[in-house]
Write a structure and sequence with these properties.
The chain is an alpha/beta fold and 308 residues long. The chain folds into 2 domains: 5-205, P-loop containing nucleotide triphosphate hydrolases (Rossmann fold); 218-301, no CATH class. Helices cover 33% and strands 29% of the residues. The protein has 10 helices and 13 strands. It has helices at 45-53, 70-73, 93-103, 109-118, 132-145, 162-179, 190-193, 214-220, 272-288, 295-301, and strands at 5-16, 19-30, 34-38, 60-65, 78-81, 150-154, 182-187, 199-204, 207-213, 221-227, 239-245, 249-255, 265-268. The chain has a 6-stranded mixed sheet with strand order 5-6-7-3-8-9, with helices on both faces. The protein has a 4-stranded antiparallel sheet with strand order 11-12-10-13. The protein is elongated. The protein binds adenosine-5'-triphosphate. The site of adenosine-5'-triphosphate has 10 residues, from α1.
């Protein structure tokens, strides 16, 4: 049976004035996944999350969250924690939870209290007196206590110290395992979610470079090192994302098309970080030198490669 889809985006785009922040964004995110939304500053991550949360409307294309357009259905079943945490600085932690309870029919007060306790937040502390990381923990607790099916998080870990990050990730993972919660979270630091995320969405200057299950993405990519004495170094028919040529060898990140063997080649599995960095560098390179979005792939397919 095919998994249910939590988010479906098709040709989704948004511009501010004449500048496109997100363009032609197409992907399906199955339910219950922990998805990392990765990309450099200004890649369009917040714009995508805000579109999916229904606080922005698209300029083109469509998006559905649990089968409905988010800007029409509101946030039912979906929790959203924006980058600028939506909390009242004059409220205490207890008042913040009380307001959450009053505003959300499905609110789980015991769970909210347990989460703020675990994060070491005193109930009587004013939000304005909390550090950025503590505020992020509180915002996460408020979002989780609504018991959403999908949580959209915009850089939730950015201001947390390493222990708070680990705690927050652990809390999320328990929730995912126990309730089937899905999470789509933006981050600059892939290391924070590597080994935890099972879906990757990589944006680059408003475009989707990669979207899919991390296992599938890792399975289709390989790093190939070929000495110049190797039988061949064009790697066809595999699609080369990026190559680096040194005096002694050619190193390539390739998307394989079937078995990947060559005389004098050393083939290994890349890490997710290597895949992401390879695609980002290839995209930057094709923009400065080539034309197409996957210019380095096209160049390499024709056998020329794209030397770094
Ligand atoms: N309200 C706005 N008005 C005008 N331009 C905007 C607005 N919000 C975002 N942009 C522009 O849209 C592009 C994408 O921004 P967005 O905030 O979605 O990126 P991001 O990947 O979340 O960046 P960051 O990692 O820095 O948070 C950027 O060029 C940004 O300057």
């Amino acid at each position: 049976m095919r998994p249910a889809i939590a988010v479906r985006a098709a040709g989704l785009g948004r511009r501010y004035g004449r500048s496109w922040a997100l363009r032609d964004c197409t992907f399906d995110l199955p339910e219950g996944k922990v998805a990392a939304l990765v990309g450099a500053n200004g890649a369009g991550k917040s714009t995508l999350l805000r579109l999916l949360a229904g606080v922005l409307t698209p300029s083109e294309g469509s998006a559905e969250v649990f089968g409905a357009e988010p800007w029409l259905r509101g946030l039912s079943g979906v929790g959203f924690v924006a980058q600028e945490k939506p909390l009242y600085r004059g409220f205490t932690v207890a008042e913040t939870l009380r307001m959450g309870r009053a505003m959300n029919p499905g609110w789980d007060q015991a769970y909210a209290a347990a989460l703020v306790d675990r994060a070491g937040l005193g109930m009587r502390t004013r939000v304005g007196a909390l550090s950025g990381g503590m505020r992020a923990s509180l915002a996460l607790a408020v979002a989780l206590a609504r018991r959403p099916r999908l949580l959209l998080l915009d850089e939730p870990l950015a201001e947390m110290d390493p222990i708070a990050r680990q705690d927050a990730m652990r809390t999320l993972m328990v929730e995912v395992a126990e309730t089937g919660l899905g999470v789509l979270m933006s981050t600059h630091v892939l290391a924070d979610v590597d080994g935890v995320c099972d879906y990757l969405l990589l944006l680059d200057r408003g475009r989707v470079l990669l979207a899919g299950e991390t296992d599938d993405i890792l399975a289709e990519h390989r790093i190939v090192v070929a000495s110049h004495r190797a039988e061949r170094t064009d790697f066809g028919p595999h699609r080369v994302v990026r190559t680096q040529v040194s005096e002694r060898q050619v190193t390539a990140l390739v998307r394989r098309d079937g078995e990947l063997v060559g005389d004098g080649w050393v083939v290994s599995e890349p890490t997710l970080d290597e895949v992401v960095v390879g695609h980002l560098l290839a995209s930057a390179q094709s923009d400065s030198g080539g034309s197409a979005e996957s210019g380095s792939e096209a160049a390499a397919q024709s056998g020329s490669g794209a030397a770094a």
